[in-house]
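FW: tagging you since you asked about this chain on Friday. Here's the raw sequence from the shared folder, copied in full. Didn't touch anything.
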Amino acid sequence: MALIDRIKFDAPSDDILVWKFPSEELKLGSQLIVNQSQEALFLKGGQVCDIFGPGRHTLTSANLPLINKLVNLPFGGKTPFAAEVWFINKSVKRDLKWGTPSPIPLIDPTYNYPISARAFGRWGLRVQDSRCFVLHIVDSQVMTDSAKILEYFIGEIHQRFSAALAKFITEEKTSIFEINVKLNELSQYSATVISPEFARFGIELINFNVESVTIPDDEKAKFQEVLGRRMEIEQISKVKVGQAYTTMRTFDTLEKAAENPGGGAGALLAGGLGLGVGVGAGVPLGKQLGDSLNATPEGGQDMVTRMQILKRMLDEKLISQEEFDVKKKAILDSV
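HL: got it, structure written out here
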């Protein structure tokens, strides 16, 4: 094989991140031409020996100190030697797209409901440490497939963004349904999580943007249905709590008023006004009892009526068994 006297890479596209010179048969005196935004690395035995920046370089034993040490190159002449030459593209790549291939399972911190979300955005990178990048990424191909390299890093983005999103909505106490108003904060937070993994390969994460977070339509519809039912239940619970409080207060008033047979409550109980007498269906118990206070006095108190009131409150779970027992004892003690 003829010895190479000119080493250069004229990239057909700026998309190529790394390229291996096709020949390893080199010689001193060869011209190494490194274009702007490139670095050239010499490898021997899987070890990065020498690195050259942009410019024209005449290869000598003086500017190949590590190769010279390994190969024992003599000074001067056209001495042949074997080494790999890798060209690294160090230009910034900004407008790269990423997106989650499948929905990310989450627990919404606001509604405590399982939901899934997808996200999309853009990112950018730059090879910061050519030595680290070559040793971790490249293989024996003459031109390493940049698409596969980017695919690997997009996979890293997916994995780390999923964890970052779950942690962000939990720490910020933000519902996934409201996350789109905090995309800037989410982008910055995610970048701090993703950057260390890129740095391990000699890559600098130039920018990372989350442009949208979406929820599948079927899950959104299901959530809206569940949320509607939950709100209905909560409203019903609030009404029952209010009724229970009113009933308890009314019953306490009746207890005290019963000590005065001439009062309104005494007249009410003496009149034998029970819970089901003269009261329309669906009227809250507390209102029934409150209206009964205005009944015209007709006689002494009725212990049976009081026990009926108490039993109904227990049956409708307006009071606990313990409260029922206390009230029951109080009624019996008053006989």
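FW: The longest helix spans residues 217-257.
HL: agreed, and Confidence is low (pLDDT under 50) at residues 263-283, 289-300.
FW: great, closing this out.
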